[in-house]
Amino acid sequence: MELQLVKGDITQMHVDAIVNAANSGLMGGGGVDGAIHRAGGPEIMNECSLIREQEGGCPTGEAVMTTGGLLPVKKLIHTVGPIWKGGNNGEKDKLTACYINSLKLAESQHLQTIAFPNISTGVYGYPKEEAAQVAINAVKSFKSKVLTKVVFVCYDDENYQFYQQFLSE
Ligand code: AR6
Question: Is 0.90 surpassed by the pTM of this model?
Protein backbone atom coordinates (compact mmCIF):
# COMPACT_ATOMS: atom_id res chain seq x y z
CA MET A 1 0.00 0.00 0.00
CA GLU A 2 1.64 3.21 -1.21
CA LEU A 3 1.24 6.39 0.86
CA GLN A 4 1.12 9.67 -1.05
CA LEU A 5 0.98 13.31 0.00
CA VAL A 6 -0.81 15.93 -2.07
CA LYS A 7 -1.40 19.62 -1.40
CA GLY A 8 -4.73 20.85 -2.70
CA ASP A 9 -8.46 20.36 -2.98
CA ILE A 10 -9.70 16.83 -2.34
CA THR A 11 -12.61 17.23 -4.77
CA GLN A 12 -10.08 17.27 -7.61
CA MET A 13 -8.69 13.85 -6.75
CA HIS A 14 -9.13 10.96 -9.17
CA VAL A 15 -9.28 8.01 -6.81
CA ASP A 16 -11.79 5.22 -6.12
CA ALA A 17 -12.95 6.81 -2.87
CA ILE A 18 -12.76 10.22 -1.25
CA VAL A 19 -13.28 10.53 2.49
CA ASN A 20 -15.39 13.38 3.85
CA ALA A 21 -14.96 14.94 7.32
CA ALA A 22 -18.66 15.01 8.14
CA ASN A 23 -20.80 15.62 11.24
CA SER A 24 -22.83 12.89 12.93
CA GLY A 25 -26.08 14.18 11.48
CA LEU A 26 -24.63 14.00 7.95
CA MET A 27 -26.13 17.44 7.50
CA GLY A 28 -23.36 19.01 5.43
CA GLY A 29 -21.51 22.10 6.58
CA GLY A 30 -18.43 24.16 5.85
CA GLY A 31 -14.81 23.18 5.25
CA VAL A 32 -14.11 20.04 3.27
CA ASP A 33 -17.70 18.82 3.80
CA GLY A 34 -19.07 21.94 2.11
CA ALA A 35 -16.58 21.65 -0.75
CA ILE A 36 -17.50 18.00 -1.37
CA HIS A 37 -21.26 18.65 -1.40
CA ARG A 38 -20.82 21.67 -3.67
CA ALA A 39 -18.69 19.77 -6.15
CA GLY A 40 -20.64 16.52 -5.93
CA GLY A 41 -24.13 17.97 -6.31
CA PRO A 42 -27.41 17.40 -4.45
CA GLU A 43 -27.57 13.63 -4.96
CA ILE A 44 -25.02 13.16 -2.16
CA MET A 45 -27.25 14.97 0.35
CA ASN A 46 -30.22 12.85 -0.74
CA GLU A 47 -28.25 9.72 0.10
CA CYS A 48 -27.06 11.22 3.40
CA SER A 49 -30.66 12.01 4.34
CA LEU A 50 -31.63 8.41 3.66
CA ILE A 51 -28.84 7.12 5.91
CA ARG A 52 -29.96 9.61 8.59
CA GLU A 53 -33.54 8.31 8.38
CA GLN A 54 -32.53 4.66 8.38
CA GLU A 55 -29.58 4.64 10.79
CA GLY A 56 -29.87 7.94 12.65
CA GLY A 57 -26.69 9.35 11.09
CA CYS A 58 -23.11 8.34 11.82
CA PRO A 59 -21.54 8.20 15.29
CA THR A 60 -18.12 9.77 15.92
CA GLY A 61 -15.33 7.46 14.75
CA GLU A 62 -17.52 5.49 12.39
CA ALA A 63 -17.98 5.73 8.62
CA VAL A 64 -20.78 5.41 6.08
CA MET A 65 -20.75 5.31 2.30
CA THR A 66 -22.60 7.05 -0.53
CA THR A 67 -21.97 7.40 -4.24
CA GLY A 68 -19.78 10.29 -5.34
CA GLY A 69 -22.50 12.20 -7.17
CA LEU A 70 -20.77 14.31 -9.82
CA LEU A 71 -17.29 13.70 -8.37
CA PRO A 72 -14.89 11.54 -10.39
CA VAL A 73 -14.90 8.76 -7.79
CA LYS A 74 -16.72 5.47 -7.27
CA LYS A 75 -17.67 6.17 -3.65
CA LEU A 76 -17.67 8.79 -0.96
CA ILE A 77 -16.95 7.72 2.59
CA HIS A 78 -18.33 10.00 5.28
CA THR A 79 -16.60 9.72 8.62
CA VAL A 80 -17.11 11.81 11.73
CA GLY A 81 -14.03 13.04 13.55
CA PRO A 82 -13.95 13.89 17.26
CA ILE A 83 -14.36 17.45 18.46
CA TRP A 84 -11.17 18.38 20.34
CA LYS A 85 -11.91 18.82 24.05
CA GLY A 86 -8.38 18.95 25.44
CA GLY A 87 -7.20 15.44 24.56
CA ASN A 88 -8.47 13.44 27.54
CA ASN A 89 -11.83 12.55 26.07
CA GLY A 90 -10.89 9.70 23.77
CA GLU A 91 -10.06 12.02 20.88
CA LYS A 92 -7.05 10.01 19.74
CA ASP A 93 -8.90 6.67 19.70
CA LYS A 94 -11.84 8.20 17.88
CA LEU A 95 -9.64 9.85 15.26
CA THR A 96 -7.77 6.57 14.75
CA ALA A 97 -11.13 4.83 14.35
CA CYS A 98 -12.13 7.30 11.60
CA TYR A 99 -9.16 6.26 9.49
CA ILE A 100 -9.42 2.54 10.22
CA ASN A 101 -13.19 2.34 9.68
CA SER A 102 -12.91 4.29 6.41
CA LEU A 103 -10.21 1.93 5.16
CA LYS A 104 -12.27 -1.11 6.19
CA LEU A 105 -15.31 0.23 4.37
CA ALA A 106 -13.25 0.91 1.23
CA GLU A 107 -11.78 -2.56 1.37
CA SER A 108 -15.21 -4.17 1.80
CA GLN A 109 -16.22 -2.58 -1.51
CA HIS A 110 -12.99 -3.72 -3.24
CA LEU A 111 -11.84 -0.14 -3.74
CA GLN A 112 -8.13 0.23 -4.39
CA THR A 113 -7.31 3.92 -4.00
CA ILE A 114 -8.55 6.35 -1.35
CA ALA A 115 -7.92 9.99 -0.43
CA PHE A 116 -8.24 11.42 3.09
CA PRO A 117 -8.56 15.04 4.21
CA ASN A 118 -7.08 16.09 7.57
CA ILE A 119 -10.07 14.99 9.61
CA SER A 120 -10.99 17.10 12.68
CA THR A 121 -8.25 19.71 12.10
CA GLY A 122 -10.64 22.46 11.00
CA VAL A 123 -13.63 23.60 13.02
CA TYR A 124 -13.36 20.51 15.25
CA GLY A 125 -10.09 21.94 16.56
CA TYR A 126 -7.82 18.88 16.77
CA PRO A 127 -4.19 20.11 16.94
CA LYS A 128 -2.73 19.58 13.48
CA GLU A 129 0.60 18.13 14.52
CA GLU A 130 -1.00 15.47 16.71
CA ALA A 131 -3.72 14.72 14.17
CA ALA A 132 -1.10 14.15 11.46
CA GLN A 133 0.70 11.64 13.64
CA VAL A 134 -2.53 9.82 14.47
CA ALA A 135 -3.57 9.69 10.80
CA ILE A 136 -0.22 8.39 9.55
CA ASN A 137 0.09 5.80 12.33
CA ALA A 138 -3.45 4.55 11.75
CA VAL A 139 -2.96 4.15 8.00
CA LYS A 140 0.47 2.53 8.39
CA SER A 141 -0.96 0.01 10.88
CA PHE A 142 -3.63 -1.08 8.40
CA LYS A 143 -2.41 -4.05 6.42
CA SER A 144 -4.45 -4.43 3.27
CA LYS A 145 -4.27 -6.80 0.33
CA VAL A 146 -6.92 -4.81 -1.55
CA LEU A 147 -5.93 -1.16 -1.21
CA THR A 148 -2.97 -0.08 -3.31
CA LYS A 149 -2.77 3.64 -2.56
CA VAL A 150 -3.74 6.02 0.24
CA VAL A 151 -3.46 9.74 -0.46
CA PHE A 152 -3.30 12.35 2.29
CA VAL A 153 -4.68 15.58 0.85
CA CYS A 154 -3.64 18.70 2.77
CA TYR A 155 -5.38 21.94 1.99
CA ASP A 156 -3.41 24.26 4.26
CA ASP A 157 0.36 24.77 4.52
CA GLU A 158 0.58 23.88 8.20
CA ASN A 159 -0.92 20.42 7.72
CA TYR A 160 1.13 19.86 4.59
CA GLN A 161 4.36 20.60 6.43
CA PHE A 162 3.56 18.24 9.31
CA TYR A 163 2.70 15.44 6.88
CA GLN A 164 5.88 16.04 4.89
CA GLN A 165 7.90 15.81 8.07
CA PHE A 166 6.23 12.71 9.53
CA LEU A 167 5.95 10.78 6.27
CA SER A 168 9.67 11.18 5.66
CA GLU A 169 10.59 9.85 9.11
N1 AR6 B 1 -9.97 19.77 0.28
C2 AR6 B 1 -9.20 19.20 1.23
N3 AR6 B 1 -9.15 19.65 2.50
C4 AR6 B 1 -9.91 20.72 2.82
C5 AR6 B 1 -10.74 21.38 1.88
C6 AR6 B 1 -10.76 20.85 0.56
N7 AR6 B 1 -11.51 21.38 -0.41
N8 AR6 B 1 -11.36 22.41 2.50
C9 AR6 B 1 -10.93 22.42 3.77
N10 AR6 B 1 -10.04 21.41 3.97
P11 AR6 B 1 -13.08 20.85 8.47
P12 AR6 B 1 -13.49 19.06 10.79
C13 AR6 B 1 -9.31 21.02 5.20
O14 AR6 B 1 -13.46 22.04 9.26
O15 AR6 B 1 -12.50 19.83 11.59
C16 AR6 B 1 -17.90 20.74 8.73
O17 AR6 B 1 -18.77 21.82 8.81
C18 AR6 B 1 -9.03 22.08 6.23
O19 AR6 B 1 -7.83 22.78 5.92
O20 AR6 B 1 -13.59 20.70 7.09
O21 AR6 B 1 -13.41 17.57 10.80
C22 AR6 B 1 -18.61 19.39 8.94
O23 AR6 B 1 -19.94 19.43 8.48
C24 AR6 B 1 -8.88 21.26 7.50
O25 AR6 B 1 -7.51 20.97 7.74
O26 AR6 B 1 -13.50 19.46 9.23
C27 AR6 B 1 -18.54 19.20 10.41
O28 AR6 B 1 -19.61 19.83 11.08
C29 AR6 B 1 -9.60 19.95 7.22
O30 AR6 B 1 -10.09 20.06 5.87
C31 AR6 B 1 -17.24 19.85 10.80
O32 AR6 B 1 -16.97 20.82 9.80
C33 AR6 B 1 -10.75 19.63 8.12
O34 AR6 B 1 -11.49 20.81 8.42
C35 AR6 B 1 -16.09 18.87 10.82
O36 AR6 B 1 -14.92 19.51 11.28
Answer: yes
